[in-house]
Amino acid sequence: MSRAGEESIVIEGPSGALEAVLTRGEVPGLLAVICHPNPVQGGTMQNKVVHTLMRTARDLGASTLRFNFRGVGASAGQHDYGVGEVDDCLAVIDWALQHEGTSRLWLMGFSFGGFVAAAAATRLAQWPERLVLVAPSVEKQDFAALKPLAGPVSVMMGEDDDVVAPAAVYAAFADERAAEVVRFADTGHFFHGKLVPLKAEVERVLTDQA
């Protein structure tokens, strides 16, 4: 059952139907697309970090679009280790451009979804207005192939992450001139007990006029 203000929709993806949830915000043309963590470890669009990113964008007046990658929940297809999932993300963005009048895109992702969001950004005709990556997977996926990134990025990283190596994330973005890396002390991969400060920092970067 969808929550008030949420609409369950189906978007046609490259491997079939993609299950998605859309909320419509008050700011015309502004949409946040949010990518979930690795399905192999149980990641879905209901993940609490994904939900925190959604609430942050929603509270700023943006419409939001979460979706399950291929093979997750009611989405058709099979897990494709980050390759086909980028195509899924691009299909979702294309749907929004065609059906929702999206003119401003905030693209966000957590862990595996952080890699997918970054990879999708590199294939868009125009870099997203905001790209926010939470604990992005930079080792298990071929993040090096995306570099140098073509636009600004904000990275949220827990200093005690035991799933994605913090040092690998810091190194991956150290030479990106338009990257901001926000470090969260005493914080693990899933931001247990740290979702409120995470929301505050994401709100800051989404509203930064610099």
TrEMBL record:
InterPro entries in alphabetical order: AB_hydrolase_1, AB_hydrolase_fold
Keywords annotated in UniProt: Hydrolase
Every AB hydrolase-1 domain range: 51-136
GO function terms (MF aspect): hydrolase activity
Pfam families in the record: Abhydrolase_1
Stretches of the chain forming a coiled coil according to its record: none
Listed name of the protein: Alpha/beta hydrolase
The organism of origin for this protein: Halopseudomonas oceani
Classification of source organism: Bacteria, Pseudomonadati, Pseudomonadota, Gammaproteobacteria, Pseudomonadales
